[in-house]
Amino acid sequence: MELDEKKYLYLLLLLPIVVCIFLFNMYWKRRKQREFGDLEMVKRLSPEKSVFKPVLKIVVILLALTCLIIGLVNPKIGTKMETVKREGIDIVFAVDVSKSMLAEDVAPSRLDKSKQLVSQIINNLGSDRIGIVAYAGSAFPVLPITSDYSVAKMFLQSMNPDMVSSQGTSLDEAIRLSATYFDEKSKTSKLLILISDGEDHSEGASVAAEEANKLGMKIITIGVGTERGGTIPLKENGVVRSYQKDQNGQTVTTKLNQEGLKTIAKATKGGYVYGGSTKEVLEYVKNALNNIQKTEFEATQMAEFQSQFQWFIGFALLLLFLDIFLLERKTSWIKELDLFNEKK
User: What is the C-alpha to C-alpha distance for residues 23 and 19, in angstroms, rounded to an integer?
Assistant: First the structure.
């Protein structure tokens, strides 16, 4: 069983409030009766008034409210088990989080644009498994291979330059770490989508790409930024305080290096696409995925859950309907049984 809308469980706190209101009302009535006269005399003046009926009415109302709340929560019960076979490929997204990605020559910034591109690509995937790597001067594993896209996008949005201690853009580190995400013995197709401005301050990116090719990896590179370049704003609480400067005190201008990214992609018979247009990137990746062989990599037992809210809502309405006929007078046949000693 699973609960569809757990947030409505908080409404159950209304039940003790209703009970308190009922008890206070009973206390208030009894107090007023005492003010009116002797309680025994008051009972004789209203011999048909039942002591039990008000309690029964509040119990019915409480049950009806409970059923309504459970109906809002919408419990689901698994009624069918089936084997689901999935076909797809394993994809790792390596996202550049170096400080140069804070440049705003691409709105809103290179890093934010990269996140948007990855998020949109994920939205267009089918049953592929994905992983995420962050890199700057070194590479950092963010999310292992998973089929949970919602979790992947949550981790994606939290990525920032503070995740990696050493700055720079070490593409070879990103490629080598991404390679560890894939199972060498698996026949599943392996794809690395590497997003960067291409400002590689390390040597060996091409060598790392050739090593990846030997492992059966294909690399698609996406260039984010402009060739004219942009400055790197340093912000505090969203306000630009200064701009990144070099050792000589000159403001740094960072530019997109497309040639380096194209070389990496070519080494694995992959491809390069400029990330300026989200539509073009999605179309390019879609075509690339269509040309990659998909394999069956998972067979799981899944329960098909069916909503049960209608039963609880229906029972709640029935109880509320019955409550209309529950008057506070004594019921004749119960009166004859005198279960609650009401004939006194």
Answer: 6
What is the model's pLDDT at position 333?
Answer: 46
- Amino acid (one-letter) located at 313: I
Distances (CA, A) of 340 to 56, 91, 143, 343: 13, 72, 66, 9
DSSP 106: S
Domain ranges, ordered by start, for the chain: 2-79+306-336, 90-293
Q: If you average pLDDT over residues 251-265, what whole number do you get?
A: 89
Domain boundaries 90-293, CATH class: alpha beta
Q: Report the distance separating Cα 194 and Cα 135, nearest Å.
A: 10
* Beta-bridge partner residues of 193: 93, 220
- For residue 221, what pLDDT is reported? 95
Angle at 272 (CA atoms; ends 173, 231), nearest 5 degrees: 70
Q: Model confidence over 311-335: pLDDT tens digits?
A: 889 998 998 888 777 766 655 544 5
